[in-house]
Amino acid sequence: MPRELVTLACSECKRRNYTTTRNKKTQTNRLEIVKFCPSERKRTPHKEVR
Description:
The protein is mostly beta strands. The chain has a single domain, classed as Single Sheet (Rubrerythrin, domain 2). Helix content is 0%, strand content 60%. It is built from no helices and four strands. The chain has a four-stranded antiparallel beta sheet, with no helix packed on it. A hairpin with a 4-residue loop joins strand 3 and strand 4 (42-49). It is elongated. The two termini are 18 Å apart. The mean pLDDT is 95.
């Protein structure tokens, strides 16, 4: 199965807010998406944590 679950953590407050999936065959580096952080109450970059 090529898809795996990853957890996204806010780069400012370091809280783990979201989970998503990624294809580990096509995306070999870590995922980074700008999403809304509820504790910061603004859009911040969220990075994949392991």
